[in-house]
Design brief:
Layout lengths: L1 H18 L10 H10 L3 H6 L4 E2 L10 E2 L20 H5 L4 H24 L10 E2 L23 H16 L9 E2 L18 E2 L3 H8 L1 H9 L4 E4 L3 E2 L2 E2 L4 H11 L5 E4 L19 H11 L12 H6 L5 H17 L22 H14 L1 E5 L12 E5 L7 H4 L12 H8 L4 E5 L10 E2 L5 E2 L9 E6 L10 E5 L3 E2 L15 E9 L5 E8 L10 E7 L2 E6 L28 E6 L6 E9 L8 E5 L3 H14 L2 E7 L12 E2 L2 E2 L2 E2 L6 H12 L4 E6 L7 H6 L2 E4 L7 H10 L31 H4 L17 E8 L3 E3 L4 E9 L5 E10 L13 E10 L4 E8 L6 E2 L5 E3 L2 E8 L13 E8 L2 E2 L3
Parallel strand pairs: 3-4, 5-7, 6-9, 11-12, 11-25, 25-29, 29-30, 32-40
Antiparallel strand pairs: 1-2, 7-8, 10-30, 13-24, 14-18, 15-16, 15-18, 17-24, 18-23, 19-22, 19-24, 20-21, 20-23, 26-27, 27-28, 31-33, 33-36, 34-35, 34-39, 37-38, 38-41, 39-40
């Protein structure tokens, strides 16, 4: 009987296996499984899989999947996450191993979020495992608003950081990707934002292969990224997402890419829309162009008409199958069709998000990103030397300038003024915003205008948090919130009920720095599918002045602190706007703001804004400065001014880009007035791109570049100013003195651009940065003084800490090609190696660089890369070999190359 039962069980198991579709069989290859699944699908089902929001196919047990997920400097738009410095800040670390560590942390949190989402049957956008990062376009011009998303202006630095970030994201498991990385935007893409949907770039073959493609090659060939995103613009007349040169000849043939290509969002629409390239007559022809060029999935909806293109005879169903196979192979390699028990990454718990270990990596990254540009000896600040310190400037308490763009939400972020107050505990720390970022631009109402009760000297409003949207019951949290400036996109402020409804009541008084009638605005930002889920009411002096009962759904991807950037007069009758008249600066009006939301997934956050004129804020700031013994001016830019295709039109800013690289006039005047008080002044810059801060360089005692530094940025700034962190960041971009130093923004020729080709004198050079100690280089030796083409070259040098405190040096190796070689096309110098070296006082270390033939090669006028004969030099030091500001003397050595060796694309 037992044998009979066993035989029946065995037969049943065999029968079940025989009935199991091949695509569900983990023992088969991804290619076999993808082919089997496609063979079971209808044409219409295939077309529905070719857009970023791929539909579920219930009859085949295929779940919905959205390819659009963001992880530029932390998992974005899907709740709380560890938030690292913006990409340009990560680049300033010059720390490739750290970038791999950051990528690993991000992918761990991504898996934790995806695992939790799947447990809840959540297949929404931003909870998937295909991440549209990193942005490895070359930051060729500081006016580009999205330059903050890149690793700077140099191909080698960008390539090395990008490779490590991609490897950290994708993991090391031989069978499964941890997540899939998507380097973007392929290729030759860096503004202007206003014309990105229609401009045509025609780079010279030299510039294309010397500057615009090397980092993409490294990400695909070396790091083996399994996805890549094509760009909006045309290149040599063809839209990038329809470019056979880029996607077929270079990507597939030259680089042997086996992964999938995704379009930028709406890029295929640009093929035929009136605002775009207009290279195709309609959506069906655009689908044909993009698909046959090799764009596999469309962010947008144009590919939903692929079935119509087949029926019209424009393409074959087999053409769709080529791309669809790549897409399903990717999902299979992520383990999305296998039992979770088989996928090691599927075991990562949700508790891995925001872990103390991850927060420590964010803190380290923020510290290493700090670049000290000037110091007359005032830094580090000595404890107790300054009894009163004034923190002045719009970035002193600005949440958005910690975040940058494409960001996740950090838990309880600390503002710079608060971090300084903690670090300078022996000093009285005053605060005043001092100026708007730029005249006519909205900014959060300053904490100095808010008080929890009449006559109180404390800044902020009394806040009561409830676990219901109806304010029922007793508040679970009562505290004073310094500002109403909260980014709760997809998250809740209540950790005890993170997914449920909540409400907040803020109450207290509001005043103004000068008499007058001012308009205020409550902004709840944008949120995906908000519907009626969130609302607010505002009461001033017992009278309701504005409310929001419903919020219509809008497109995903918005941010709480987004703004139109238009002057107030151009935005009449806006929802959430109200006015208050102040008879004098001491008058206080009572104010109550009640905000409620049905769930964490249903809304964004809240901000109380106004648009003061510079002359309204300036007197208070100067009065504050005069009370102090030291001024820390927190100046710079905002991701609400510079970023992706933004409706901003203000002096110096247009469409997300800048038309002026100077510090905005309102802040420049503020700084001049502060300096005129005679008080020692330290300037801290928070921004995503280079600023021409000539006045600060000439008159401030110190200048610190902090970028958009992430969740630990405020503490990193404070620790750097007080000496707990010895600054070791280096500039990944050139800081020019004036816009007149630059070619036209829309000129993509590299002539006179970046440190490699710039012939003028910069304000601060690429690779520059100061320390609180000093370093010296000695004993440079090359493996040979005569090299045959195709052989590697090794260089070793000793670096010593000659100062009195421990520090980290960034040793930089530059190759100096023959000035008259290669038809004069080669850069005057090019970074080909860098290493971080940690040294105690008096300690010395020998470091070694090995240069491959590719690193020793040059690109000719036809775009051919080859090792070329001639006399070369190597320079190793703490910056560029001829940087007038360098505090170290670079070691140099000459060598010659005999013969020629052409290298493959």
């Amino acid at each position: 009987m037992r044998r009979l039962i066993a035989a029946l069980v065995f037969t049943t198991v065999l029968s079940a296996k025989a009935q199991q579709p091949a695509y569900q069989n983990p023992s088969l290859s991804p290619e076999q499984r993808a082919a089997d699944l496609m063979g079971r699908m209808t044409l219409e089902e295939k077309a529905a899989q070719m857009v970023n929001g791929a539909a579920a196919i219930p009859r085949l047990n295929v779940p919905a999947y959205d390819y659009w997920n963001e992880a530029l400097h932390g998992v974005a738009r899907s709740g709380y996450a560890t938030m690292f410095p913006q990409a340009i800040g990560m680049a300033a670390t010059w720390d490739a191993p750290l970038l791999k560590n950051i990528g690993d942390v991000i992918s761990t949190e991504a898996r934790a979020k995806n695992n939790e989402a799947l447990r809840r049957n959540n297949h929404d956008i931003y909870f998937g495992l295909t991440f549209w990062s990193p942005n490895i376009n070359i930051f060729r011009d500081p006016r580009w608003g999205r330059g903050q998303e890149t690793y700077g202006e140099d191909p080698h630095l960008t390539a090395q950081l990008g490779v490590n970030f991609v490897e950290g994201l994708q993991g090391t498991n031989p069978k499964y990707y941890k997540v899939i990385a998507t380097p973007k935007h392929f290729a030759v893409h860096s503004g202007p934002e206003e014309s990105r949907h229609r401009f045509d770039v025609q780079p010279s073959p030299h510039d294309l292969w010397d500057t615009y493609l090397p980092q993409f090659r490294a990400a695909i060939v070396d790091a083996k990224a399994d996805s890549i995103m094509c760009a909006y613009n045309r290149i040599d007349g063809e839209p990038a997402c329809g470019s056979k040169m880029l996607l077929v000849e270079i990507l597939r043939k030259d680089w042997k890419f086996q992964g999938f290509v995704t379009s930028d969002c709406g890029a295929i629409d640009d093929f035929y829309r009136s605002y775009g390239h207009k290279t195709d007559p309609d959506a069906e022809h655009a689908d044909k162009t993009a698909l046959l060029a090799g764009t596999d999935t469309n962010c947008g909806g144009t590919y939903k008409k692929l079935d119509a293109a087949v029926k019209a005879g424009l393409i074959k169903e087999s053409d769709i199958d080529v791309s669809l196979r790549r897409l399903f192979e990717a999902r299979i390699r992520l383990g999305l069709f296998d039992p979770p028990s088989m996928v090691p990454y599927a075991q990562i718990p949700f508790s891995a998000v925001n872990s103390p270990a991850n927060e420590a990596v964010a803190k380290r990254a923020a510290e290493e990103s700090m670049v000290l540009l000037k110091n007359d000896g005032i830094l580090p600040l000595r404890a107790g030397k300054y009894k009163t310190v004034a923190v002045i400037g719009p970035n002193g308490a600005a949440l958005s300038s910690l975040e940058g763009n494409y960001n996740g939400q950090p838990h309880d972020p600390v503002m710079p003024v608060d971090a300084l107050r903690t670090s300078l505990s022996g000093s009285r720390v005053l605060y005043a915003p001092g100026a708007p970022y730029v005249a006519g631009f909205a900014m959060p109402v300053s904490r100095t205008m808010l008080h929890p009760a009449k006559g109180s000297q404390e800044h902020g409003l009394k806040a009561e948090y409830f676990t219901s949207a109806s304010f029922s019951g007793s508040p679970v949290i009562t505290r004073v919130d310094p500002e109403l400036n909260f980014d709760w996109s997809g998250v809740s402020p209540l950790r005890t009920a993170p997914n449920g409804p909540f409400a907040v009541r803020w109450s207290g008084t509001i005043s103004a720095p000068a008499a007058g009638t001012y308009e205020f605005l409550v902004k709840t930002g944008r949120c995906r599918g908000c519907g009626p889920a969130q609302g607010y009411t505002v009461t001033v002096d017992g009278k309701q002045v504005t409310e929001l009962k419903r919020q219509a759904p809008v497109a995903p991807g918005g941010r709480i602190n987004g703004t139109t950037g238009l002057p107030e007069v151009d935005r009449p009758n806006r929802p959430g706007a109200f006015q208050i008249t102040f008879d004098d600066a001491k008058q206080e009006h009572s104010i109550t703001i009640e905000f409620s939301r049905d769930s964490a997934s249903a809304g964004s956050g809240i901000r109380l804004e106004w648009s003061p004129k510079p002359e309204t804020l300036l007197p208070e700031a100067i009065a504050t400065a005069k009370q102090a013994d030291l001024v820390i001016a927190m100046l710079g830019l905002s991701p609400d001014l510079e970023g992706e295709e933004m409706p901003v039109k203000l002096p110096g800013f247009v469409g997300g880009d800048r038309s002026d690289i100077n510090l905005p006039a309102s802040q420049d005047e503020l700084l001049k007035q502060i300096v005129a008080t005679g008080k020692p002044t330290i300037v801290v810059l928070l921004n995503g791109s280079a600023l021409a801060v000539n006045f600060a360089d000439e008159h401030a005692n110190a200048v610190l570049e902090a970028w958009y530094p992430g969740e630990a940025g405020a503490r990193a700034i404070a620790d750097t100013l007080t000496g707990k962190n010895n600054p070791s960041g280096r500039l990944p971009v050139t800081f020019y003195k004036a816009e007149s130093d630059l070619p036209a923004f829309d000129d993509y020729s590299m002539k006179n651009r970046t440190y490699r080709y710039f012939t003028g004198a910069p304000l601060y050079g690429f690779g520059y940065g100061l320390s609180y100690t000093r370093f010296a280089y000695s004993g440079l030796k090359l493996s040979t003084a005569k090299l045959k083409a195709g052989e590697p070259l090794t260089a070793e040098v000793t670096v010593k800490n000659t100062g009195k405190v421990a520090g980290e040096e960034v040793a930089q190796l530059y190759l100096l090609p023959p000035a008259d070689g290669n038809g004069g096309l080669s850069p005057k110098q090019q970074l080909e190696g860098f290493q971080r070296v940690s040294l105690k006082p008096g300690e010395a270390k020998k470091i070694t660089f090995t240069l491959s033939p590719r690193q020793l090669s040059e690109v000719d006028a036809q775009g051919i890369r080859a090792v070329q004969p001639g006399s070369y030099s190597i320079a190793i030091g703490g910056g560029q070999p001829k940087d007038a500001r360098a505090t170290t003397t670079a070691q140099t050595a000459a060598f010659t190359i005999d013969g020629t060796q052409e290298l493959p694309h």
